[in-house]
């Protein structure tokens, strides 16, 4: 008599629980992913104190950027490093050879990204309000905040799964992936006003999802008068939605083409 295998939903829930437990048991990952954006906000927010126009100080401006950095850290960076480690130590090979549906593995990773992203954003908003008196979004800006975050996190997660194959092993994963994430953040106006980024680097940044994620978040935390500082002179929320959606679709193809269940 054969025993029926559990449903995909049940296996996915179990795998999601495993992913969350593994993440929160690794102190280095928790500190870097959750607290590093907070340290950035506290450090740069305290040091860089200047008016950006329309009565906006740097902490208010930087809130969008540091949330974008938190999303990139929880999705692209954390995802790529962890998958590279699991590929290197044989975990992926073992899972691929088990009865577990491969889809459940990716569902677990997505749930982990969602949980860590939500926790990161909640902590940043709390610190921003209590320490710097950040003005929170209001009205429909919360809806914009939600869809920009979801699309941006999805695009960066898929990109992270794809670039995980660039790391040859677990030891080189952080050294390979972290510079990619930092470069994308710097050229996307995460750590500085985007209009201060050289024009040719703005063009390069426009190819990747991080720039559009940061721009969409700026539209939520900044007054419309500062939209004139953007390359197109507006927030381009329609373009933000299109580019991030295209990256979600392109990311799926990249993952299918590059993902490997075992090391080279």
UniProtKB/TrEMBL annotation:
<keyword id="KW-0812">Transmembrane</keyword>
<keyword id="KW-0046">Antibiotic resistance</keyword>
<dbReference type="InterPro" id="IPR047817">
    <property type="entry name" value="ABC2_TM_bact-type"/>
</dbReference>
<dbReference type="InterPro" id="IPR013525">
    <property type="entry name" value="ABC2_TM"/>
</dbReference>
<dbReference type="GO" id="GO:0046677">
    <property type="term" value="P:response to antibiotic"/>
</dbReference>
<dbReference type="GO" id="GO:0140359">
    <property type="term" value="F:ABC-type transporter activity"/>
</dbReference>
<feature type="transmembrane region" description="Helical">
    <location>
        <begin position="237"/>
        <end position="259"/>
    </location>
</feature>
<dbReference type="InterPro" id="IPR051784">
    <property type="entry name" value="Nod_factor_ABC_transporter"/>
</dbReference>
<dbReference type="GO" id="GO:0043190">
    <property type="term" value="C:ATP-binding cassette (ABC) transporter complex"/>
</dbReference>
<feature type="transmembrane region" description="Helical">
    <location>
        <begin position="60"/>
        <end position="85"/>
    </location>
</feature>
<dbReference type="InterPro" id="IPR000412">
    <property type="entry name" value="ABC_2_transport"/>
</dbReference>
<comment type="similarity">
    <text>Belongs to the ABC-2 integral membrane protein family.</text>
</comment>
<dbReference type="Pfam" id="PF01061">
    <property type="entry name" value="ABC2_membrane"/>
</dbReference>
<keyword id="KW-1003">Cell membrane</keyword>
<keyword id="KW-0813">Transport</keyword>
<feature type="domain" description="ABC transmembrane type-2">
    <location>
        <begin position="28"/>
        <end position="262"/>
    </location>
</feature>
<feature type="transmembrane region" description="Helical">
    <location>
        <begin position="144"/>
        <end position="163"/>
    </location>
</feature>
<keyword id="KW-0472">Membrane</keyword>
<keyword id="KW-1133">Transmembrane helix</keyword>
<protein>
    <recommendedName>
        <fullName>Transport permease protein</fullName>
    </recommendedName>
</protein>
<feature type="transmembrane region" description="Helical">
    <location>
        <begin position="175"/>
        <end position="194"/>
    </location>
</feature>
<feature type="transmembrane region" description="Helical">
    <location>
        <begin position="30"/>
        <end position="48"/>
    </location>
</feature>
<feature type="transmembrane region" description="Helical">
    <location>
        <begin position="106"/>
        <end position="132"/>
    </location>
</feature>
